């Protein structure tokens, strides 16, 4: 209640978009990058392009140099910053997350001690007020309490920052080269005063390195980020620091921080500073690369004109976002609904991230430099698999099949460079092993089903099928367990022998969760095999192994031991055997066999699902907070509101999804219910607001819900057009009375694959009371 109340109060502080800005074809005018920066949404407001490599945004501090006070560097209630970093993840849940590379701080005052020695961020940091902060797509501006105005804009791989220092005050830029969010193995900086340049790099990685369940297993290096910066003002003084030592006049230093935390890391690291004339207005042009310093320089020269200003780059960036967001045009709705909708779409299109330089080179998972494959337009990095495969990747494939194809090819190439292993969670190029299951399989199978063709379909399928059938050498390792177990398909031979993942021998986060994840992954691979004109009876059969961890005595999924016995002391709220969720949530994770699940529940599936979304008094309970009920903040149950369609009560899907859309999501910093997880919660909202949702990973059918807007037009990048019309929609009119597909009445509560691959138009008539539409067995 406290968080919700705070969010509502903060929402009132967000200025409305001027009416003049709300042109019908300018969806970017509705985007508020601050949405999700509270309530553990873990988003950030900085400057970024669609799928951009560079994302220039604040790194905050609560007084600990080895942390940020917020996952991914920013949280709305933390108003002290120690720099503006060049790379970020959007919505990743652990604190401090990952990336946050090369924080750059405009600093007023004398640099007379090592910033690394300022372990509490008491001196070399500054406060700011949200009243002096503005974020729009492609641009971030803030005037710090020190008096410095910071204005940032970016291209895909480069950016321009303008720093206006107060009159008669010393003007410095501090480059904290080693101070990535999780620390660093090494860093370097070189200052060229006469050439007005600074260049350097950081050698880092360690996604979620401070997670207790990751431990030292994930405190490892997997990329080096290079940067080059030039200035339009002369450098009048400079220096470097390493650990506690400041060297005025020095032009070069090196040194990392390590990947420990707190006192074990504080006071370590290196960086450099440049000083300009007092009261200067400094324009800095900057490029980055994961390949080389020369690559960073080429990226900068190619993407930023020599005299380009922030205003020029920001205008181009805004136009870029406007074009991308026009992939979906909504008609009608309130200003708040459009703001929520287009900000969600903005968050979806932040990733995957372009990872190659302009010349086509990129850093592989093997830490070697590679080039794009023939026909590939971009190499993409970062895959939050366990999260994204439940909503974000479907929306990506629906709107941007060209990007989805290059993303699939990118993942395949990273796997080839990683001994054939597809990692569950890639950060940039780096396998982090985070979470559970085998999410790459349903992801690429879904891409194939939704008409994505521009990748090595056969090669990728064979690679994933091989991993599903043949145990790799890492599969018996416990390193990183439970949250970051090393191997793809851990303990596969044990899993195949038992036909479930034993809780005491699975080398995984939780045996029941692993069984459910693998069952769904195998089902999706079997669907993909059929599309390729072959059969995979073993994988098809394995798609039903979820039944082997369903305990009929209690009516729930339950952890099971290798000897066949069930884990004792079961309650539906238990997390034993599960990953970031309870048995009550995971029991529903069978979207590939809803009727089979209903049969296991002895005809009480609807009654139990009702109790999942309501409290004992029959009131809605969809905001989270109970292990026994729906949790909108995490992924395992995101599909659950749509299961009513398969149970013959489609109107309950319509009512439930509309309740979540209306009460769980909103505007203001608290507008997301939880970790956005690289656009996944945002993608769920987009689907629910449109009134459609992907039925099953590995397939392309769409379930029908309750459209929020009178008209929605989707423009797939391959030319396919999809239209959803619901002219009578309102707060009360949320129930489907009838539906027509391309002018023909349709009683089924789902839409065929052809609707996705070839396009079409549905007209939905909504009324204010529940109906029997979509309830007959043949229509489910």
TrEMBL record:
Keyword Hydrolase included in the entry's annotation: yes
Record-annotated Glycosyl hydrolase family domain positions: 295-766
Glycosyl hydrolase family 92 N-terminal domain ranges (all copies): 30-289
Keyword Ribonucleoprotein: no
Family annotation (SUPFAM superfamilies): Six-hairpin glycosidases
Highest taxon above the source species: Bacteria
Keyword terms, alphabetized: Hydrolase, Signal
Pfam annotation, one family: Glyco_hydro_92N
First and last residue of the signal peptide: 1-21
A GO MF label: hydrolase activity
Name this polypeptide is given: GH92 family glycosyl hydrolase
């Amino acid at each position: 209640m406290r968080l919700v109340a705070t969010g509502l109060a903060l929402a009132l502080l967000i200025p409305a978009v001027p009416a003049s800005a709300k042109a019908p074809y300018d969806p970017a005018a509705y985007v508020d990058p601050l949405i999700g920066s509270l309530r553990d949404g873990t988003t950030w407001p900085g400057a970024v392009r669609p799928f951009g490599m560079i994302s220039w945004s604040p790194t905050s501090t609560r007084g600990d140099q080895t942390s940020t006070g917020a996952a991914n560097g920013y949280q709305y209630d933390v108003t002290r910053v120690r720099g503006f970093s060049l790379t970020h993840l959007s919505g990743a849940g652990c604190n401090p997350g990952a990336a946050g590379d090369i924080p750059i701080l405009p600093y007023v005052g004398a640099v007379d001690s090592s910033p690394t020695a300022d372990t509490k961020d008491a001196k070399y940091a500054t406060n700011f007020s949200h009243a002096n902060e503005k974020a729009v797509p492609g641009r971030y501006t803030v005037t710090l309490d020190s008096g410095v105005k910071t204005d940032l804009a970016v291209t895909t791989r480069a950016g321009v920052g303008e720093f206006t220092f107060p009159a008669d005050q010393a003007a410095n830029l501090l480059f904290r080269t080693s101070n990535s969010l999780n620390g660093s193995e090494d860093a370097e900086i070189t200052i060229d005063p006469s050439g007005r340049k600074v260049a350097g790099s950081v050698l880092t990685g360690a996604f979620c390195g401070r997670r207790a369940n990751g431990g030292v297993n994930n405190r490892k290096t997997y990329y080096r980020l290079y940067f080059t910066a030039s200035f339009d003002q002369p450098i009048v003084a400079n220096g470097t620091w390493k650990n506690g030592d400041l060297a005025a006049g020095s032009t070069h230093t090196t040194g990392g921080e390590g990947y420990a935390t707190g006192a074990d890391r504080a006071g370590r690291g290196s960086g450099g500073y440049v000083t300009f004339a007092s009261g200067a207005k400094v324009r800095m042009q900057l490029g980055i690369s994961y390949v080389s310093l020369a690559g960073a320089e080429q990226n900068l020269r190619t993407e930023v004109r020599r005299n380009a200003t922030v205003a020029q780059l920001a205008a181009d960036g805004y136009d870029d976002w406007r074009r991308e967001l026009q992939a979906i045009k909504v008609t009608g709705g309130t200003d708040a609904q459009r703001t929520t909708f287009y900000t969600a779409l903005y968050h979806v299109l932040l990733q995957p991230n372009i990872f190659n330089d302009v010349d086509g080179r990129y850093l592989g998972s093997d830490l070697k430099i590679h080039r794009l494959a023939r026909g590939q337009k971009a190499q993409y990095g970062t895959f939050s698999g366990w999260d994204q495969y439940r909503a974000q990747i479907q929306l990506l494939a629906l709107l941007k099949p060209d990007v989805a194809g290059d993303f699939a090819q990118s993942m395949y190439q990273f796997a080839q460079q990683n001994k054939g292993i597809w990692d569950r969670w890639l950060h940039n190029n780096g396998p982090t092993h985070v979470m559970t299951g085998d999410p790459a399989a349903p992801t690429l199978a879904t891409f194939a089903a939704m008409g994505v063709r521009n990748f090595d379909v056969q090669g990728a399928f064979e690679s994933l099928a091989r991993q599903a059938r043949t145990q790799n050498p890492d599969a018996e390792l416990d390193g990183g367990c439970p949250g970051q177990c090393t191997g793809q398909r851990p303990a596969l031979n044990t899993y195949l022998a038992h036909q479930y993942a034993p809780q005491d021998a699975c080398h995984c986060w939780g045996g029941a969760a692993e069984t459910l994840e693998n069952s769904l992954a195998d089902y999706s691979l079997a669907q993909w095999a059929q599309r390729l004109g072959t059969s995979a009876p073993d994988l098809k059969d394995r798609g039903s192994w979820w039944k082997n961890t369903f305990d009929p005595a209690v009516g729930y999924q339950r952890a099971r031991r290798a000897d066949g016995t069930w884990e004792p002391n079961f309650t539906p709220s238990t997390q034993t055997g599960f990953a970031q969720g309870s048995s009550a949530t995971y029991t529903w994770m069978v979207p590939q066999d809803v009727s089979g699940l209903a049969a296991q529940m002895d005809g009480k599936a609807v009654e139990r699902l009702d109790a999942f979304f309501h409290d004992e008094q029959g009131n809605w309970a969809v905001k989270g907070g109970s292990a026994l009920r729906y949790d909108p903040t995490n992924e395992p149950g995101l599909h659950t509101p749509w299961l009513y369609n398969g149970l013959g009560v489609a109107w309950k899907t319509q009512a439930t999804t509309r309740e979540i859309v209306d009460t769980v999501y909103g505007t203001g910093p608290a507008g997301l219910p939880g970790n956005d997880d690289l656009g996944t919660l945002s993608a769920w909202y987009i689907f629910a607001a449109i009134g459609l949702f992907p039925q099953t990973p590995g397939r392309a059918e769409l379930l029908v819900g309750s459209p929020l807007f009178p008209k929605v037009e989707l423009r797939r990048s391959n030319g396919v057009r999809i239209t959803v019309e619901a002219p009578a929609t309102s707060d009360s009119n949320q129930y489907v009375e009838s539906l027509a597909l391309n002018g023909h009445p349709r009683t089924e509560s789902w839409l065929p694959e052809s609707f996705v691959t070839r396009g079409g138009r549905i007209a939905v008539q909504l009324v204010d009371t529940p109906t029997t539409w979509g309830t007959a067995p043949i229509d489910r």
